Every structure is written in structure tokens, then in C-alpha cells.
Amino acid sequence: RHMASIKEIRTHIKSVEQTLKITNAMYLIASTKLRKARNDLANTRPYFDALRGEIKRVFRTAGDVDSPYFYPPDNNTPLEGTYGCLVITADKGLAGAYNQNVIKEAEKLLAQHPDTKLYVVGEYGRRYFDQHRIPIEHSFLYTAQNPTLDRAREISALLLDGFLAGTLKEIFVVYTDMESSLLSEAKSTRLLPFHRMQFAPPAKEKAVQEPFEFYPSVGAVLNSMIPSYVSGFLYSALLDSFCSEQNARMTAMDAANQNAEELLSALRLQYNRVRQAAITQEITEISAGAAAQRGTFGSEG
User: Fold this and answer.
1) Which pick of 12, 64, 217, 248 has the fewest CB atoms within 10 Å?
2) What global pTM score does this model have?
């Protein structure tokens, strides 16, 4: 009975050790991906910050500019009609509540405005909406695992086509913002149309003394800058989400590693006890056998 039990514990220990190898490898892969994505984010952010600054400068020069990308002046009320929503999830799970938090945010938006077309990044989101029979307008495969500026531009072009054609009145993005390694938050943000206040200069900033010349017009200059700004925002959202996913996976794998270590300690203790008991049992049986042999020989004498 003891020998079978020792074999079972040894098998259990091997299986936990195998799991620990996998979770440890996943932790290391996630940390490498996180480092690379953070670098990508740091390298591209200055360009889009500068672009935002230029858009602000246009507004400082010509505050009354008319553009299809902005709410009309003095009107910030939500528009009627179909909305578009880009939902950024991961391609796989094992990342704590990362995916569920994004889905919850998207469902909140759908509850508030049911006439919303979904554009989904990541296999997890695609599978979830399919299983729940929620129609998807477009699914972007493999973008979650490999966020690039080209892929952000591809998504941006599709959303802008719908927006400029008037089939999508407002566009939202549901993604995960990694504020720090300890804090990530799934959030829903309206991408288009912009509030003019988003680009309004601070009150204390002086107005431009010498007006700039815009060719062929202020509207044309602004309208050529906005698509780049939108694809930049989406690229940041993809990278931010990717960083958050890797961070969440590191946390989940770290917890799994600790659990496996604790389980291994308990199993090794149990293994030693059972083994000790088996040895003691054998010694007892040998001693009893020897004593019986001695008794037999003694009685023959």
C-alpha cells in the first residue's frame, strides 16, 4: 500500500514540476515582450505628441475652423445613429482578468447604445462575441500579438472610412491603459468626433501674434493631420493593451509559480513521510521476522 502511495506522490511531484517549468517560461516570455513593447511605445510617443501639439497650434490660430472630425462649435451632445467600437483583447487567456475587464467595458457601451458595430482585435474577443451571438462587423486577426504602426493604420483607415461616409456617427475604443506596473485599467474612450476642448490651448497661454498661413486652407491642413493622429492614438492603444496583457500574464504566472512551489514543498514533505513510514514498516517486518526465526531456532534447541 505504501509503495503505491510513494509512486503516486512521485508522479504528482513530476507533474507539478512540469507545470512550474511552463509557467516560469511564460513569465519570462511575457517580461521580454513587455520590455520590447514599452520601448516601442517610448520611441513613437514623441512623434504623436508633436502632432497633437501641431493640431493645438492650428486651433490657437483659427479657433473657428470647420472640420468633419470635430463636433460643431457649442455642440457636445452625443449624436444619433450607428456607432463604431474597436475592442482590443488578447489572442489568448492566462492573463488574470485582463480580457474579462475589456469585455465588461464593451458590454457597458453596447447596453448604453445598442446600435453599435464591433471591430474586434484579438482571438479572445472574437470567440467571446461569437459564443454570445453578438455580431462582429470586422475582426483583426494577429494584431493583438504583434501591434505595429501598419496594423494601426489599417484599422484607422477602416474606421475613418465609415466615419467620413457617415455610416458611423461616433467611434469608441475599448482598450487597457497601463498606468504603472501595479495599475492597469480597461477603459472606453470616444475617439471621434473630437471635442474642441481636447485641443484647446491652456487659458494662460498667449494667442499667436503672427497668424500662420495655411495652404490651401486651415480645414485642408487639419484634415490631412487628423488621420495620422488617429492611427497614432490606435497604435498607442494597441501597444498599451499589449503591455497590460503581458503585465497581467506576468502577475498570473508569478502567482502560479508560487502556488506550484508551495505545492511541491507539501508534496516533498508528504513523500518523505510516506517513504520514512515504508522504511520503518520494512525494518519492523524484518525485525519481527528475525525475532520469529530466533524463536523457532530456540525452540528447536
Assistant:
1) 64
2) 0.77
